[in-house]
């Protein structure tokens, strides 16, 4: 596992997601995208970067620690995401349905990237 390579691919993916979000925001606007879409995006990107750092630290400890560490980091990210969403939903937030839909969509895209990182690293460990 090369941290520079994975962070480069994460930054490329995050840039692609930012570009798609900006494109959607300019095309469809506020009725379809929540006004807090950039807060959601920054949270997902930040928690994704934190996940990759924890995942790398677990990988350096060995095979058994990598599997447990990556699953613990994935669950921690899921709990942080739930707390982030609950913070906004329980507050005085307008248009809660679109907030949840936008949040879940971005969470899904970042989770797919993280799962692909796990799979590629497990495949790399099997080949060595």
What features would you describe in this structure?
The protein is an all-alpha fold and 128 residues long. It has one domain (3-127). The chain is 86% helix and 0% strand. The longest helix has 32 residues, at 96-127.
Keywords:
128 residues, mainly alpha, 4 helices, globular
Which class do the helix and strand fractions yield? Answer: mainly alpha
Number of helices: 4
Q: Please describe the biggest sheet, giving its number of strands, its sense, and whether it closes into a barrel.
A: none
Rg estimate, integer Å:
16 Å
The counted number of beta strands is 0
- Mean pLDDT value: 87
Give the domain tally: 1
Describe the secondary-structure layout.
Blueprint: H1 3-27, H2 37-61, H3 63-90, H4 96-127
Helix pairs in contact: 1-2, 1-4, 2-3, 2-4, 3-4
């Amino acid at each position: 596992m090369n941290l520079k390579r994975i962070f480069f691919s994460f930054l490329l993916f995050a840039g692609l997601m930012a570009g798609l979000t900006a494109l959607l925001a300019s095309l469809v606007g506020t009725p379809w995208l929540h006004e807090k879409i950039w807060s959601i995006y920054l949270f997902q990107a930040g928690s994704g970067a934190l996940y990759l750092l924890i995942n790398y630290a677990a990988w350096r400890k060995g095979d058994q620690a990598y599997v447990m560490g990556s699953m613990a980091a994935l669950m921690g990210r899921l709990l942080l995401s739930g707390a982030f969403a609950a913070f906004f939903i329980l507050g005085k937030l307008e248009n809660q349905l679109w907030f949840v839909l936008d949040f879940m969509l971005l969470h899904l895209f970042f989770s797919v990237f993280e799962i692909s990182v796990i799979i590629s690293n497990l495949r790399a460990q099997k080949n060595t």
